[in-house]
Design brief:
The complex is a heterotrimer of chains A (about 290), B (about 600) and C (about 240). Chain A has 13 helices and 2 strands; from the N terminus they run ααααββααααααααα. Chain A is an all-alpha fold. A two-stranded antiparallel ribbon of chain A has the order 1-2. Chain B has 24 helices and 14 strands. The radius of gyration of chain B is 29 Å and the shape is elongated. Chain C has about 240 residues and is α/β, with parallel strands linked by helices. Chain C is about 35% helix and about 25% strand. Chain C has 9 helices and 10 strands. In chain C, helix 3 packs parallel to helix 6, helix 4 packs across helix 6 and helix 6 runs parallel beside helix 7. Chain C starts with a strand and ends in a 12-residue tail after the last helix. Classes of the chains: A mainly alpha (about 290), B alpha/beta (about 600), C alpha/beta (about 240). Chains A and B meet through helix 4, helix 9 and helix 12 of A and helix 5, helix 11 and helix 13 of B.
Amino acid sequence: MDIFVQSAVYGALLGVGQGLFAVALILTFRSTGFLNLSIGAVATVSAYVVWDLWSKGSVPLAVAMLVALIAAAVLGLVTERVLRPLRSSSVVVKLVATLGAMLVVQFLVTTVWGTEESFLPLFISGGLQMGRVPLPWQQIILAGGTVASAVALQVWVRRTTTGIASLALAEDAGAARALGIPLGRVSAAVWALSALLAGIAGLGLSSFGILNNTEMTLSMVTALAAALIAGFENIPLAVVAAAGAGAFTAAISSISSVSHVAGLKESLGFMVVLAVIVLRPKSLGQTLGRA
Amino acid sequence: MATCKHFAVPLVVGAVVAAPYLFGEYGSLIGSLAVIYSLVALGYVVLTGWTGDVSLGQVVPYGLGAYATFWLSHTVGLPVGLAILLAPLLTVPIMVLCGLPALRLRGLDLAIGTFALALVGQLMVFRSLGEWLSGGDINPSFARQVVPVGRPSVGPLALHTNRSFYVAVVILGGLAYLAVELIGRSPTGRTLRAIRDDPIRAQVLGISVGRYRLGAFVAAGALAGLAGAFVASLRQGVTPATFNIFESLNLLAVAILGGLATPRGALLGGTLGAVMPELSRFHTFHFLQGRLLFVYGASLIALLVFRPGGIASLLRWDRQPPIPLPHLDGDVTAPAAGRSGSSALDPLLELDGLSVAYGAFKAVDEVSLRIEPEETVALIGPNGAGKSTLIDAVTGLIVPQNGRVLVDGREVTGLPPQRRAGLGLGRTFQTARVFPSLTVSGNLVAAAHHHVSDLGESKRVAARLLDDFDLTEYAESLPPSLPFGSLRMLEVALAWAPGPRILLLDEPTAGMDPTDVERLAVLLDRLKDRTQLAILLVEHDMGVVRRLADRVVVLDQGRVIATGSPADIAADPAVVASYLGTSADRLREEETVRRA
Amino acid sequence: MLEAKDVSVFYGAIRAVSDVDVTVVPGEVTVMLGANGAGKTSTLGAVSGVLAHSGTVTVDGEPVANPGEARRRGVVQVVQGRGLFRGLTVEQNLRLGAYGQSRRVARQAIGEAVDHIPEVGQWMGRKVASLSGGQQALVALARLMAGRPKYALLDEPTLSLAPVAVDRLYRELKGLVAQGVGLLLVEQYVPRAMSLADRLVVLERGRTIYSGDPQGAGGAEDLVAAYLGSPATAHLGVQS
């Protein structure tokens, strides 16, 4: 098969894994109006924890993973609590606030683990081979997990009372409160869940690049594009879009003339984001039922 | 005492400005950086503080200004001083190009869009600009790392020392600051704030929102471009590493820290941005070293939570000065209503087969209507009948699929809302739309300003309106503090300020208690007596309809199902069944109280 | 019995409500009248536990301090503007109305609400934003019923409603009252509200200026005159 197509398939697989970030983003945005850009940093923390305990240390993998995910969830809860007073602020203020949170979490990473480059080995080695392009098992499992959680979440949000409550929260917190819905608890649950998903994504994706902050943040770009295409609403669509965006960028990057242009490969994701933002019919503000 | 205060401020300012110079080369370096960051922050004040557009990409014109300075001085061969002055101008066409698609975005979309733009700039553009612009006489791989820029000369004096450079930068930066201050206090500044508060309201009042937003975007870019030019010459070189997304966030953070509402906040923020990294050298602030990320992040969050107005709001530097309004002399008539010269045969407002459809759903279905001068027509009908949609279509906020709208015999169907305001249309909204960050008089002046000859005239109009609408005691108050009835009155006053010939009122009495309903009815009667005002009134309160309306039009499912006098309508069985119910009695009742 | 005693509500330094007493008896309607800014909404917020307040609010002697507790004691509020979640479906709104009850009880309560207002049953899958104002008022009512209220607090439920829809709403409210629900109704529309009232509270600038038997306030005309401070205006459609 053509390297172009092979790259596209690989990119799609990688993209689905990154789609887990999109799911996490949509979860908090739909419920609380926060476009939480700090989850990339949270994912990095999870990866570093496993690296520290399992790769550098001698803690069993399962335990290390558990600690890493707990750390991610805790970060989510703490961030939610700190940013809770901004609950009724504009979406832009909330965005800038999460950027502040991102800076703080990144500071955490560099303080605890420094800025040296590290490598996280694969948890599961081997995989399928498609022509010149490998499809690692780890990525396949991550992709599978993403699809499963996307489906599960979609049901949870639409059918369970807590899930529905999380949607109501975003639209009209005052009215939700008047119905006796415990705003703080619902909000905290959503953020913890979102951070957990980010942690899982971090664990799954870190083995495929250098373990550092910037890599993870760049990884989130596909997720941002996918979430935008899905209007920050439709979780399954976001996963599909992530696959598409991933396939697109990987395929384009495989064209040799492209890799000669400095920075083009890395920028592709952002250019997709730009294009989607400008060409979308409905604005993000409208998604939340407000102008 | 007053003179003491008069001298104190310039003295303090003078001392602060002189301080870096007195601290020698190092101090002047920091001082210059403070001016540079302040310029970027000034851009944020204009774009975000006043106009309400959040751009996370100010680093793009910042970098462009720097590279433009390099190109102009090195490749084109201009003297460095001239290059610095021209560089901001070069950013203008690029910002216009980026700004035009950005106009379609607002709020979060704009923030993300500019965020992505900044990242593309960081990853692609700035890395290669050095090479592209060098004209070939610098080794390409070297050009990608850093390109040289010299220091400017003022006549024979080359500004090689940081101190001399600082003086030049303070002077030029000071001029830019003054320009921004002047804009802020001018009607343009008020218009920008109005656009930020409520762009739809502004459009309907006749303000060209798109033009102002683009202007703010370009102005912010020029300010950042000037800052970039300065930093290029200060450091005597440009490296792409300076213009990354974290720098953009830092710049935004210090701008927010200082305060986005006033140019003085920008000065505070810029100074902080220059001083904070240096503080860590001093013993007491040693803990700051390596912890800047945390400090910026944490202070950003803390600010947003506790003091979104920044330090400037803490110091109360962002209070709006009161607008001195002239005393009323005699009976100044209401502003000239629309334009004269219309044929006496044309109805004031005519709708011809107007249709608005959303897919298969017809919100307004072939509605035809004529309203003559001095007529008051009530538009009633069940919820969802299309009444508000109709008004939106008449004022240009919605594009109809079919049909025409004519004002004074002139077709306005294709015109955007801001153009229709000048032709005599005024409207209110179901939920009162005013400009909450402007004082009541500020609201009125802003509304009148775009339709009268000069500022003095608009102030006279505002004074008259305050009196007519019983708002004098609230002149310097902000709208959120107004009692509900007065808030509604303010909205009608805003609609009235441009001097419309027909008022479209969308449920003006909703939520009003009986006292306020009476006040509004009396006021509308008065306005009608004084001018040839026509009114199209959407109402559910049949008592108000009976009191004010000459004619009633009933809309149901987008179609006109009945028109006639209030008594006729009250007797129509179809209308009673679908809409009036037991309220038909109120519509039918004899008046027992004469109109005032 | 739902009793609020000496309730005061502060917004910073501003005292919106001063020492107001309100009583709601099951199966009866208490109407609260007053000009805009008189403190009616704030009083309602205090009674339902949403707003911080001084004074006591008790249901059958048990205190109520927050919305959760209010819910548990059967106090359900319909806020001004109805507080429906327009981006959610009717069914999702009803489920939220039943929040806090077990799955089985919630399903029963929703079923009963739909029995009372059959139209709502046909709109279950539709987003609330796609319904007209009158239809939304019925959904809000059904959501109220899904909460199995013993006491219902309604803040200007007829706002922006077509007269025919107001007729329907009041019919349903009468039905609720007949089932034994105690109603606390805030209204601007004097004559309509008076036709339902068993007891009356009139507020002015946060204070009670009248409390007790509706008849004692005179006819609706006198009432309007009393708190308007000017001769009754016929355009209010006042009938004595």
